[in-house]
Amino acid sequence: DPYARLLLEALKQSGCTVFNDRHFSCENCDGCVSGGFDAATSQIVLCQNNIRQQSHMNRVVTHELIHAFDHCRAHVDWFKNVKHLACSEIRAANLSGDCTLMNEIARFKFGLKGHHQTCVRDRAIRSILAVRKVSKETAEKAVDEVFDACFNDLEPFGRIPHSKADAKRAYRDFQNRDRYYANL
Asked: Which BP terms from GO are recorded (predicted)?
């Protein structure tokens, strides 16, 4: 998967090499949660009882790898700073493919103008509420306060990958970054 390959390489370049046997765990989870990032262990949890398709698993892995990348490069305070959590959830919803048109149609949610941003905002709020005991108003306020900056932070993709083709281009660009900067 080009999304995961790019994120794994970016994590490695940031000094946070991911090892499959150490940093991924498949578990049975309560409710309809598909996965999570455990900051205390730097481990991605995949909820094997709630993931039924490869494409869904790819999105969950990508979403959680974005959290791992943020944890590595930005030293996110997951537990005390709801704005930090909001920012990472915005980035994960924006860059993982969670809000592609096809996924939104499958959820019976679609619109034309500004729909991607609306989806990212709504999914970030839902994710915060799923992992923290805060009010909906607190989650909405945190997302609103950091939305523009975090929505526009496209690292390490450099673009919003709306498809696998976009992710492949982003991966190719990422691999060639050093060659570009070396010629300046």
From this structure: mitochondrial protein processing; mitochondrial proton-transporting ATP synthase complex assembly
d(CA 67, CA 91): 8
For 85, the domain range is 77-155
Check whether residue 60 and residue 109 sit in a common domain. Answer: no
Candidates 9, 27, 64, 89; catalytic one = 64
Q: Are residues 146 and 131 in the same domain?
A: yes
pTM: 0.90
Q: What is the pLDDT of residue 69?
A: 97
DSSP letters spanning 87-154: HHHHHHHHHSSTT-HHHHHHTT---STTHHHHHHHHHHHHHHHHHS---HHHHHHHHHHHHHHHHT--
Distance CA 5, CA 156 (A): 11
Q: Please state the separation of Cα 17 from the chain's center in Å.
A: 17
Residues 138 and 56: their CA atoms lie apart, in Å, by 29
pLDDT at res. 99: 82
